[in-house]
Amino acid sequence: MRLGNTGFFGDEYNSLREFAASGLQPHSPVFFALMRAWGAVGGRDIVWLRLLTALLAALVVPTLYVLGRELGGGRAAGLGA
Fold first, then answer.
1. Do residues 52 and 65 touch, judged by C-beta distance below 8 A?
2. What count of other Cβ atoms lies within 10 Å of the Cβ of residue 31?
3. Fewer CB atoms inside 10 A, N or C side of the chain?
């Protein structure tokens, strides 16, 4: 996975702007609050900022598998993941 090969896309610029301003708004979305904390730890490097989203996306697959297994059995787990 090459997170730093391209510059920011239009939607990423919007996210970066929201992320930078999220401390000023009283009801910021959770994602931007996470991005603000993530950026405070590692800065605003393009790879670092994209890494949070990539890690969260990677966690979706096992989470859906476990949820599917609990709610609908093995087949539902495989289809969900």
1. no
2. 15
3. N
- Token couple for 66: 């476990």
Instruction: Supply 16's token pair.
Output: 């970066």
Q: Which residues neighbour 56 within 8 Å (Cβ) at sequence distance 6 or greater?
A: none
Task: Please count the residues of the chain.
Answer: 81
Give the start-to-end residue ranges of the domains of the chain: 10-80
| Claim: this prediction has a pTM higher than 0.70 | no
Those residues with Cβ within 8 angstroms of residue 50's Cβ, 6 or more apart along the chain or in another chain: 3, 4, 12
Instruction: Determine the average pLDDT of the residues in 33-58.
Output: 89
Q: Are the beta carbons of 34 and 19 closer than 8 angstroms?
A: no
Contact in structure between 35 and 15 (CB atoms under 8 Å):
yes
pLDDT-derived band of residue 20, with 50, 70 and 90 as boundaries?
Answer: low
